[in-house]
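Two records follow; treat each independently.
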Amino acid sequence: MGEKLKMLLKGVDNLYPHNTEQKYPRIVEKLELLWGTIGMGRYFNELLFDERGDREGFPPEVMAELFALNSYNESMRPSRSAIMQSWADGGELERLERFKKL
């Protein structure tokens, strides 16, 4: 269990959620499925913030692991300026500006 997530976190092994895996194995399974996808951020929000108002919450050690993973996930996402720069480098931004003028 969690082998895929261990592989995905290679190099930052200290972020592996051992407590979460022990107490909530389904969460680790879903993290493995969603890691690197657009749905990952949404899933972290669902886990970390109770929007229904009726959840008990996670133990502190699990919450700490989830927050650390969320922070790492966020840090791996490219910034808007990096995306715009990659577009500019490939000429896509110029083509987009021309298209807007049509």
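The next record belongs to a different protein.
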Amino acid sequence: MYRARYSNDRAETTVIKPFEPSRSFCYHFSRYQAIPELLVLPEVASGAPFRLIDSSKPIIDKHLTIDQQATMVRKKHSDRVESILKIIKFYIPFIAKNTGQLISLGNGFFRLPTPEDINEDELEDAELEEAVSEGDLAEVDTFEGSIYAFSFPTLVQADAPFPIKVGKATGDVGMRVEAQCKGSATFENPVILGCWQVKRVGAVELAIHKVLQSRGKWRENAPGKEWFDTTIEEIQSIVTFIKN
């Protein structure tokens, strides 16, 4: 069996799914097991171009036996059959590209997206997703607020990435950060590193999170959500691109 991770910006639930010879299994394995592990590989997280099949095959081998990979599955509404391995090798690039987690360079090579890869259509999709999750479709087009970044003094590094919380606020940022830290297991007061006034604050926050996640910066095991190993300069560059 394999461990599949279903996550979003609000919660994360780990689900154990047994192997089964089906396209549904191949899809879920590709999206929730293989791709998340792929994105944090050093050769991928660096942002340099990489050959997808060369990086993804060891992940497949780690979780599926040779016999499981060779298991044949009948194609729906057809007499054709394909192996589990072949189906997964199709789904990984298909899902990664269509969810914006990787950029195809052709000839089997991919790279992580950069802020320059974000376009207006992607921001509209992010805005709609945020609106649905907040249940506030009517106000999403005019919803303004602040993107903020904070950390704690002992975590701050001068010349290296360190844990930073990136969130949004529609009111006073200082009060928002204070409310988030109140009652948490820390003996330090938070320090606000940056604050940016933006339009469509939900869409901008989601776009920043997606770029940082695609770069392998998300701190999965942090005692809270929306924490990333990054720098204030990196966040600033993403915000600047989106605002412009």
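Discussion point: The chain has two domains: 2-112, 116-243. How would you locate this feature using only the token line?
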